[in-house]
Amino acid sequence: MKGDFARVTFDPARHYSQVFQQQGRVLLEADWNEQGHIQLHLLRALVKDLIGPCWAPGTGFSIAGTSTDANDKTTTLALTDWTLSPGHFYADGILCELEQSCTLSQQPYRPTPDYGIGDGKSGFENPPAQYALWLDVWERHLCSLEAPSIADVALDGVDTASRAQVVWQVRLIDPARADKMLDDVTAALNLRLDAHAGDENAIKQQLAKVAALRKQIDGSDTSGNNNDPCTLIRQVLQARQTYACPRLVAGLGTVEGDDDPCVIAADARYRGCENQAYRVEIHQGGLAGGTAGATFKWSRENGSVVFPIMGSAVPTTGPDGNGTLAVTLGRLGRDERLGLAVDDWVELVDDDYSLAQRAFPLLQVVAVDVANRMATLRVPKGITPYAVSASAAKHPLLRRWDQGDGANAQGVVPVAEGDAIALEDGVEVTFDAGGLYATGDYWIVPARVAGGGTLDWPQASGGPAMVRARGLHHYAVLGVADDNEDGYRECCCRFEPLCSLIHTRTEKADVVVAKTDTQATKAVTKAPRVSKTGGTSKTGKP
Description:
Number of strands: 31
Distance between the termini: 90 Å
């Protein structure tokens, strides 16, 4: 959530049930937001515990691979044209909604990360013999630039509250991709095994579980404990969060003195002049280390400094291979702290970029034309910038990041596990060894001037705690397909509304009663008649 927040205080481990406002006290946005988080946590936990992690009412999100014409002729569809039924679906208690039927390739929150870059392919073309369809569910933060309807036009561009939007995407996984996921988890666990000698037994047990999962995927498990395919795919999708979820600890390091009177003394630990909410976000996912390893970016404003893009020119290239890109902006920020300056790193973003969870190189500002609201960005040789959409409906924008001198040629910082990485003003972060990173994983580090310069960071065993990444996704398996067996079969549970079940039961009961009454009437009609003398004839007549 890249909003202008002072901090995010909700922690389910604290078991808070309500936030109380007190008279005469300062009202902070963190308290209001925590109350919303508490309510959501309660509701989603109830739905998940009571019904299950993966279910749908009625026919919501059911998938059809055939179509029937007016003459009752059935045609098998290509996977791209399989249809998704409108309705509701619940993944870990989170409500996913589809208002009208769509095909897999035309789902509303496309493009997914499986879409090709520039070729228009959806990832459903030419499916393998064995695969599964699954639902990737996450929440996306939207400011007034990304969702203009939430802004009141009477305020003339001044924004107020922001929104969170539930995003769901139907995606495909096959055995090869499942193997790659488990290979990455195994590699991460081996890194953790080398770094944490004291946890050797626990990590080896985790490695054994991942190896067993891999054998079941490959069909080489001879133990006879093969799981149901639906359960198996769910375990694969959750393996990163279960065994290799990234963790980070934030702290304050020693810094050299500074003669600048505007900077707080070096012995004050956090040396910034203002309270900040540092956001550390993974840019390129994967394992740490190597030339193609995981990278991150950071912002002292929680990534909330954005500028609307009104237009961009075609990148120009000089004789040395380096180029520039001129971008016209709707505004340049309301002050210097929230504005744009030379040497700032920026990310070109639009709806497609966010939904597909892209991680293109960041670009550096080389010039700012205030009069024309234009920023010129450097495009280094060999770097391909993201081609931001020219359509206002895609909400193109420029997002500022603050990593400064610590960035590489692509504007990001390589993840180096186990070593303290300095951000600024004494703030340091350390990634725990053995993490498998994904684009969008993030942590928020609130820094405070009060108290001599401190960090509002969780504590454990007398020191800063290792904290799991935020922004994790939720997964549900819709169904599995196997050309060698029964074709496609659904994995989720389905329920009719209680009223429908009650009516159905009542109707069945009425039928039973009606049948009983009819049988009783027939029995009375056929019963032998009693004669006046008390005897009966064989025919039943007196």
